[in-house]
Amino acid sequence: MKKSFFKQMILLTAVSSSALLADTYVGLDYAQLRYSENGTTENFKPRAMLLKGGYGFHKNFAIEASVGTGISNDNKDVIGYENAKVDLDYLVSANIKTILPMSKNLDVDILMGLSYIGLSTESDNFSNDGAEESIFYGMGLDYGITENISIDANLVYYFNNIRALELGLIYKF
Question: What are the structural domains, with CATH classification, of the chain?
Answer without folding.
Answer: 23-172 (2.40.160.20)
